[in-house]
Amino acid sequence: MTSRSYESTSSRRSAKERMTDDDVYQYALTQSSPIPIRAHRDVTPGDIDMLFEYPFLLTPKLLETANRGSDATRHPDLDRESSHTSRLTGAISSSLNSLTDLFRDPTGHRGVKFPDKLFKVLDIRMQNIAMGKDPQFNDQYTRRVVAVFWGSLKAAEKPSSKEPSSSSWRQIKENRKIEELILFFVSTATQALRKDPTLTGDAWKHELDAQISRFILILRDCLRNIHHVPPEITSRLELYTTRLAEGMESRTGPATGDRGSAPNQLPLIKHEATGSNAPSLGSEEDMPLVRAVGKLFDKSKKELQNDLNAVRQVCSEKSALDDLKTCLKNINADMPFPGRRDDFDTEEAYHRWRTQELAHISQLMLAMIQLKPDLAKSMPLESSAQDPSPQRPLSGLVLGGPELGRNFTGPTNHIDFATSDDGIEAGHNFSFVPPNPKKAYKRLVELCLERDLEAMVHLPEDQEVSLTIISHQHLELLNETALRWRISHFYRITCFLDVIRYKYERDEVPIECVPEGLLMVDKAMHDVPLEFWPRFDVDYVSTVYGGLFNIFLGALYEALEDVTKLKPERITPYVQVLETVQMSGLVERYKADIDARLNDLADRVRVQAVHQYTDKNYELMSNPDPNRALPLLHLTDYLEKQAKLLDKRFPKPILSRLDLVSLALESQIPLFLTDLGDMRVPLLEGSTRKPPDVPLADIFALYRRTKTLLSMHAAFCPNSPLDYDLGGFFEPYVLQYLVNTDLQTAQWVHTTVSKLVEEYCRTVEDLFMDEMFPRRSAEERQSKQYAFIGKARSTIAGERKVDPFTFTPSSCVKLNNIEAARSLLDKLYARIDVDTISRTLDDHASPLSDEPKKQRFLFTVKIVQAESLVPPDSSSSKLDSFVTLSDEKGIRLAKTRTIYENLSPRWDEAFDISVENSLWVMASIRDRAVIGKHDTIGRGYLFLDPKRFGDYLAHEVWLDLDTTGRILLRVSMEGEKDDPQFFFGRAFRSLKRAESDMIRVIIDKVAPLLRQHINRAALAALVKSTTTSYDYNKALAGMTGLYRSAIGADKADALIPLPRQEKGKPRFQALTDEEIESALTPLFDYLDANLQTFNNHLSEATKATVMAKIWKEMLATIEDLLVPPLANAPSDMKPLTDKEVDIVFTWLKFLNNYMYAEGASPLTQEQLQNQKYRDLLSIRLYYDWHTWVISFEMRQSRDRDAF
Q1: How far apart, in whole angstroms, are the C-alpha atoms of residue 437 and residue 334?
Q2: Hey, CA dihedral for 802, 803, 804, 806, is it positive or negative?
Q3: What is the pTM of this model?
């Protein structure tokens, strides 16, 4: 209802609208007092209990429309008489069949279910009644029936129960149908009452009706204490209560049996005027709602009784009916109360409200006529003949459903009701309705809430209280008041929320009550959209929502006093309410004011952020420290941590507008940049001092953190960009760093890269060598002494045997470490971009100073091979040689591995030698001795002169030994430069050399085993084992002897010797592959064991390198069997026979197949059958040729190529 509706009334009515608490009291008293049948008759206590213990008497009877006759040929008088009779006589029989029909679920299996919590609440209530703790139900019959019902429930609840009722109870718990629960009570109550000897005849049936009515009241009370009860459940209970009351009223009165009047039975009084039963009036002590009104307005019993007697003059059914008729008149006349067309925005909304309001008022009038048939005499027959369709009951909770009469579709002759008495005029001529119903209702809600809050103070602390606060008694009062005063559901819930709003603002109710009220309003808006609400109610709820938004914005403003200590749980309740109000859309009309308040909140956060930054800055800057960068570093750390903390606590903006992180950074980052600019000169001066007070490392750390802060500002504050030249501020420090780096780069790279890598290589090589050549303890050396002597004797005797070496996984890991270090160094080279750095340094090289700078030179000396070596002892034909390099002072510079049993050894090992000036180097070839000192084979001298090797090319130098023979060295030189490329290259060479040396040691461990099993002695053993001779005479003599032993000897026979040329010659049997392979079986067994270790523990690249080296050594061993080494002097090596050559090539085939391993090897056939392999195969073609023939063919081939 809009304010304009009331402004259009007369000044007389405006005066009436100015209501005081006394006015509200008078009208509330009229609602709480019973409606008498006749104004002059007093009220009895029994009548008071009837009306207020059974409020269904004020609700209309809901009659079934199903099976209603549609035959138009029936006489109208008969229809009216039949309908009138059915309404007055009642519809319930006392038989159990009628009760079963009454409590049948009208919705079938698809009906709504009552809350599961009802079982617990009902159990407690039944226990209290059975034990006599409930004063409302304390008569013996009720306690006895409830005790039997409660006991049946407990027995049926047990899982092992065999009671017949257990299955019914399980069905009730599963279906949760209210009808099934009532019928279960009817069954147990019937059994209990039939056995009562005091109830004779049909008295037990009448008592059964009374007990069923009480049980339904108990169910209604229990459901009021439970949230989220479906409205259909409450409606159905009210329907059953109404029908039971009609059935009891239709009878002449309750049977008393031998006990007189049944306790708490519904009392009905016979009236002389009409012959009907009706309640009467009494004192205030018998009226709970009257007493509640008296407590609300602080009235004494005497004052309350006097006021009650005064209102009896107007509290009549006739005046109540006239009020309803006036409402109908007003609706038809488009009067302000209870509503008119101007109160709604659309015609559809008004029509919706008008239809529901007319249906509701008509049903109220019909209900009063049903309860007081005398009122129907003043109504036309047409009006009383109509029968409204079933709908939900009209009385409900004050916070109940939004639409009364929603399902009403039957015809209602409201025009007949309104015109049945021409003395009723449109206007505000009401007995029960105050001049301003909404204002009076709101004041009544305030008083109810205040009294209930006062009562809550005296409740136990552990007792739960509903968030609606209003007690059940006050709830009933407000319900009846709203029903009579025509207060819409929308206004009622909004009024409740409004009262909660300013009660919360005064700290009289907790904050949890506000969301409860908002939830009810949101549910109403969901059920009925706002476009169907009256304008006044829409304006009212918008005003209340705007007030709530304003209150909680203020609370949020106070909570943002210290943002750094703010916890999410502190503002979460405020934010939830604000978001609920904001999402409703009802505060859009206050958008300008809300934006202004939100801007105030944002300004408060900014101011708090500025204060926090200022305090922290003062705290850090007040500490004296020569390093002026430290306070700034601590400040950036503080800002970053605070921003991350706020972002973690409040990841989303508050109300989609207040982003605490962006507001804080928006205020603090510009202040920090200003302070950073003020520190430009002190920072620069401190960094240039010797030693510097401000290290460049701190400056660059400050740069990184400042850049992080700027990035955070750009991410969180995209609408407030900062134009700050970060590179310009730190440019002087970068230039200073470049100058210092230019001076230290060479030393750093040399120390960090080259030296450390070389040290690492030496360490790993030492560990590797310790595993390859383990040191024996004293006891082991003593135990092995005899073994050494045995080896020495075998060596002297020419029977040298090599012990196989078993490789360990740890040795493989060390080899992998070198390969991994080389890979990491390669990545470091690329990451640093050494090539670009070197070019940049060359382009920006500082001018040469006048001071001479010492230059060092790096020589790489590769010891290739030696030839024409002569053993120092004529008794030995082989040498186990190695080479050492020493400087002029005799300090060893390098040492090669040992090459066994070879007069022309090949080492192919390179060493780096760094010198400042020229240097003489002595190359000594020594023969390794098993026992004693190593013999010197010969010495050669090399002069490392930078001038000679200044072209930086590789030079091959043959050094003649001081004895016989010579050695080949490959020498190259490069100048050591203060250049990253040089030192990285040196580090790469160190790693590569370490890897090559370690692989070479592995090959040196394998090579003796190869030579031990692939040599001429093994060939000779194979050939000798297959040479046999055939003795013809011996065979013939054997056969002759065998023959003569069978037939007897004849001495006359003479032996005839064969000619010499016909005697048997020795024959050679062809060797099978198995026999040839058997010579290599020990070698293959050794390789199987060790190659498995390589395969499991070496990386793929290192494994392929080791296998390739082993294959190369195998080819070299095969080559040594076939041809002598290249030398200037003739060789005394004898050629192999054809059969021996065939065996050697068969070995080569076996070795190739073994190393290929059917494709499982890391080596491919292309790698195995390389040029060296093909050269060996070609030896078979010209192996039998003489040397001069081979030389002749080579000269002819050369001439042909030249031609």
Answers
A1: 18
A2: negative
A3: 0.49
